[in-house]
């Protein structure tokens, strides 16, 4: 699957027309950045104030986002009820596995959601995916922080197999951005090292993915929307870094990033995104 400027423009226009409502079940630290990312990308975020109202809010939304960082017994129950509502309504569910490498419980919770329900997209760092897909519970995330996905065929085979088995789109943050549906593989050049110490950028990407996939109406459009969201964050990172280097500027890098997301268009993506594609049987 290749993507041209007309397809890029169509994907961006779909979300501008729909302005989807995204239900965010997230932690209190990153929820502000998540909401900003959604707003900058033509979506509308909503967060439940009480866990008891989460399923009702999901019913009124176009996409459900789940973050695993801040869990409790009541919250897990609300998440499962919300996922069941999303399944009945036929809206996509995006699972952010941030923090899955912190404990065995979080890993088991993520696998439970993936095995029991129809999760559309799973996003995380490469070390989190290695913990999630491994049967060895003694592994630590530090064992994989320097893993080069492009050079590691075995790791990519594991990811593609996981994607096929669960019929899930995987978005992996590694040295670049990696995307697979089990068959197609995309690498999008990113600038995550420059943003590694800036909190919230991973949540911003999740927001973009939710807006894109909520605006799509079929599987091809959904996969393309996730790719366009990744291209958007990568190009916005690139431009933000360039602007941050200009003299007499007094703004934070994250502010530049959000500005670029607001002003993204198909021409910028086509010109500035560096994308590698391969198809694997």
Automatic annotation (TrEMBL):
<dbReference type="GO" id="GO:0009228">
    <property type="term" value="P:thiamine biosynthetic process"/>
</dbReference>
<dbReference type="InterPro" id="IPR029056">
    <property type="entry name" value="Ribokinase-like"/>
</dbReference>
<protein>
    <recommendedName>
        <fullName>hydroxyethylthiazole kinase</fullName>
        <ecNumber>2.7.1.50</ecNumber>
    </recommendedName>
</protein>
<keyword id="KW-0479">Metal-binding</keyword>
<dbReference type="GO" id="GO:0005524">
    <property type="term" value="F:ATP binding"/>
</dbReference>
<keyword id="KW-0067">ATP-binding</keyword>
<keyword id="KW-0418">Kinase</keyword>
<keyword id="KW-0808">Transferase</keyword>
<keyword id="KW-0784">Thiamine biosynthesis</keyword>
<keyword id="KW-0460">Magnesium</keyword>
<dbReference type="GO" id="GO:0009229">
    <property type="term" value="P:thiamine diphosphate biosynthetic process"/>
</dbReference>
<dbReference type="GO" id="GO:0000287">
    <property type="term" value="F:magnesium ion binding"/>
</dbReference>
<dbReference type="Pfam" id="PF02110">
    <property type="entry name" value="HK"/>
</dbReference>
<dbReference type="InterPro" id="IPR000417">
    <property type="entry name" value="Hyethyz_kinase"/>
</dbReference>
<dbReference type="GO" id="GO:0004417">
    <property type="term" value="F:hydroxyethylthiazole kinase activity"/>
</dbReference>
<comment type="pathway">
    <text>Cofactor biosynthesis; thiamine diphosphate biosynthesis; 4-methyl-5-(2-phosphoethyl)-thiazole from 5-(2-hydroxyethyl)-4-methylthiazole: step 1/1.</text>
</comment>
<keyword id="KW-0547">Nucleotide-binding</keyword>
